[in-house]
Amino acid sequence: MDATRARKLLGLIGLGVRGRGAIVGVQQVREAARRGKLYLAIAAPDASSNSLDKVLPLLRARGITVFAGPSSTELGSAVGREATAVIGIVDRGLANGIRALSPMPMPDGRKKELG
Question: Considering its fold, how many domains does the chain have in total?
Answer without folding.
Answer: 1
